[in-house]
Amino acid sequence: MTTSASNSSRYYLTTPIYYVNARPHLGHAYSTIVCDAIARRKRALGIETWFLTGTDEHGQKIERSAALAGRTPEEFAAAISGEFKGLWDQLGLTYDDFIRTTEERHKRGVQHLFATLRDKGFIYKGSYTGQYCVSDEAYVDGPPGTVCPDCGRVTETVSEENYFFKLSAFERKLLEFYEANPGFMGPESTRREVVSFVRGGLKDLSVSRTSFSWGIPVPGDEKHVIYVWLDALANYITALGYGSDEAADQARFAKFWPADMHLIGKEISRFHCVYWPAFLMAAGIATPRSVRANGWLLFDQGKMSKSKGNIVRAETVHTVLGSDALRYFLLREIPFGQDGSFTFDALVQRYNGDLANGYGNLVSRVVNMVHKYFGGVVPEAGVSTVAEDSLRESAGRALAAFGPAFDEMNFSDALKALWALVAETDGYLTANAPWKRPADRPEAEHLALQARVLATAGEAIRIITALVYPILPESAAKVWRQLGQGEIDDSAKQAFLTELTWGGLKAGTKFGEPAPLFPRAEKDAVERMQQIEEQNNLSVVEAASGGTSLEKTAKKEIVVDEVSVKQAAGAKAQVDLAVTAVRAKALTYQSCPDTKPQSPTAAPIATAVQAPVAVTAVAATEQPVATQTPEEPQHITIDDFAKVELRVAQILVAERVPKADKLLRLEVDLGYEKRQILAGIAQYYEPEKLIGRKIVIVANLAPRKMRGLESNGMLLAASLEGGAPVLTGFLEDVPLGARLK
Ligand code: MSP
To answer: Which residue CA neighbors atom 15 of ligand 1 most closely?
Structure first.
């Protein structure tokens, strides 16, 4: 059997679907970010792309986690699934569909697949006694007490009447399939491991369980639920419409199946490269074209994972450096397929070296000079010299190297090739120094040099920006505007990567306004991220324990995520507020345009979220707020709290206020009205990074005037020790104007 030939006009790619027993961390974000970069490039190449992600919500592990958290599995799964989806949205990931395995469309498809396998004689009833790893939801060979070879946990003995899938019938077929499709799985280490597993002999696989009920019932024998991996793997077809009678679903399935790539973590290769093609072959469905395994993200020397307690959240990096910084780091630093260490130091080093001082600085120099010397209009380049020819050749080399490396998933090499062009363009600028006219150079000659150099450097930047767009989408969009090229997403829709050649920056093009791209990260960026993580972990535990002993609960790492879910399932908005707030000590940061942050004070809003921490109201005010030390708790009544109108708003405009270096002027949208607010956060937030962000404001604060401007409200933020505020936000989508109660 062979995979069907690739149809290059459409591309279907998938992430693994994530277990909902714990909140997302960077390890989960990694696969999803890689898929997003690929999907963006495919679309910009004019390929109709379908990018699927989602959550894996059934099974014993989830059932137990929900019970531990005192929630129903439905509530528990919905809360965590929402966190995944919310995070992907916050990071700007462009998935086309998000499937939850608890959705009806999925259940129907899985039951259809199970019935098909049974009707075709590949499923039979038997009994199973053996070892089972609940954490990996996997059967393990060995006597009672055997440890799971994947995660090292002790397995449980299961003795049940089960349905079995005739996996043993596929041993030879699979080996032939791998042989005939050498590109089916990668990297090479994955291929070797899978082939040797199959050569070692395949036993029939138990595909139902009776000892718990959180799953999809076996059609016609409802005391069995379908084995979670058969359920989960089927998401790749049920999301397209497999098992549906609707014409539109059938058309989507016919169009996009088989998948071009399942991107997975290396520890789940066996499920994707052995079980999945066997299920599909048995059901008479085409097999996917490829499976690619990413390595693990390591932190503190171990695989980042909830159970080890060594996790970093994507939100932390997003808050401090932005999501492009995270994308760039993951794709540049870690050769795809290998394990890679994540450290805050390496992240900041890459950010400053490659983005702030490299690409960002290059763009800013050129855009500013075009404005300064040519009124923001691209000049005629004139006759080129050896230097321009050489830069054009470098761009040709980058163009030739980037695409194939990226498409082979050598993202790191692709970026290296592109950054060679960044460096050459930088060197070209420095060598020609258009900002400096030697005394013996006539003015007309200097003007011609400036025109030639800036038009040529601008063109190099255009090429770099177009190529890097899938990896740095937010920043590339800003540069595209600055280069006068309009909206990069529109260019992507018009398949701009298909015709990317030297010479696209036309003389006469009006540049957009210069705007900073990657403000240099100062020394405290690492500390800020570490603090956010530490506070986040401790505070979630603290909030979970209702403010009881931190040390006591902090050790129970497994409880951390489960209890935060407990809250998430309840008063979600308040909990999100609390989760942001828990990063902080009880501080109120009162910022005045020209004064330093004030000493810590308790904020009354803290009581609203029932967390032993305070949310800060960041307003620009010229009055000192009353100070109160954390040792002197002062209670307010619910009526007091009800007087404060907290509402969700979105920032539409953010700009600095001239001559007030701490102050930003914001225009926010409350859904029912727009307002101007002045906030003393200019030292901590780049205005352009705030645009579009949803925040919480105190909406009924009396207006006050500062610097001749009226402020109508106050933002909420948590302040870290040292004074840097962290704005409140939501992981889930919340409508504008929604009130926090
Ligand atoms: N639910 C299954 C997948 C079913 S796909 C039909 C599952 N879920 S998971 O949440 O445990 O893992 C999802 C993915 O996240 C896996 O590909 C896993 O490798 C990846 N990662 C989780 N932690 C990771 C790192 N620390 N580093 C890189 N990826 C890791 O398995």
So the answer is: 28
| CB within 8 Å of 30: residues ≥ 6 apart | 294, 297, 330
Give the helix ranges, DSSP H, for 582-718: 638-642, 687-690
Task: Ligand 1, residue 311: give the atom nearest the CA.
Answer: 26
**590 vs 408 pLDDT, higher one:** 408
**Which atom, in ligand 1's list, is nearest to the CA of 22?**
10
737 Cβ contact list (under 8 Å, min separation 6): 647, 648, 649, 670, 671, 672
pLDDT of 548 over the 50 cut: no
CA-angle at 342, arms to 402 and 559, nearest 5°: 135
Per-residue pLDDT band at 594 (split at 50, 70, 90) = very low
H or E, element range at 1: none
Residue closest via CA to ligand 1's atom 16 equals 265
State if residue 80 touches ligand 1 by the CB under 6 angstroms criterion. no
Distances (CA, A) of 450 to 156, 437, 568: 73, 10, 58
Read off the pTM.
Answer: 0.75
Write the residue with the smallest CA distance to atom 19 of ligand 1: 265
Mutate to test the pocket of ligand 1, among 13, 56, 151 (most ligand atoms within 8 A of CB): 56
CB 14 within 8 A of CB 264: no
User: How does DSSP classify residue 355?
Assistant: I
Q: Are 459 and 503 in contact (CB under 8 A)?
A: yes
DSSP annotation of 644 reads: S
Return the residue matching tokens 């596929």: 170
Contact 556, 710 (CB under 8 A): no
Each residue's pLDDT tens digit, 607-652: 222 222 233 344 333 232 222 333 334 566 666 677 788 888 988 7
Greatest distance between any 2 Cα atoms in the chain: 94
Is any atom of ligand 1 closer than 6 Å to the C-beta of 19? yes
Coil, strand or helix at 215: coil
Residue located nearest, by CA, to atom 29 of ligand 1: 27
Cα(16) to centroid(ligand 1), Å: 7
Pocket test of ligand 1: the residue of 268, 291, 298 to mutate, having most ligand atoms within 8 Å of its CB, is 268
Q: Please, which residues bridge with residue 128 across strands?
A: 160
The ligand 1 atom nearest the CA atom of 235: 6
160-204 per-position pLDDT tens digit: 899 999 999 999 999 999 999 999 999 999 999 999 999 999 999
**At 440, is the secondary structure helix, strand, or coil?**
coil
Cα 76 to averaged position of ligand 1 atoms, centre (Å) = 19
Other beta carbons within 10 Å of 661: 11
Average of per-residue pLDDT across 489-509:
97
- What are the Cα distances from residue 563, in Å, to 66, 136, 560? 9, 21, 6
**Residue 147 is which amino acid?**
V
Q: Residue 230: its pLDDT value, please? A: 98
CB 533 within 8 Å of CB 720: no
How much distance in Å is there from the Cα of 473 to the middle of ligand 1?
Answer: 25
**Ligand 1 contacts CB of residue 27 (under 6 A):** yes
293 lines ligand 1 (CB under 6 A): no
Q: Is the CB of 304 under 6 A from ligand 1?
A: yes
pLDDT, one tens digit per residue, over 221-266 is 999 999 999 999 999 999 999 999 999 999 999 999 999 999 999 9
Q: Is the pLDDT of residue 739 over 70?
A: yes
Q: Please, are residues 187 and 232 in contact by the beta-carbon 8 Å criterion?
A: no
Greater confidence (34 vs 605) lies with 34
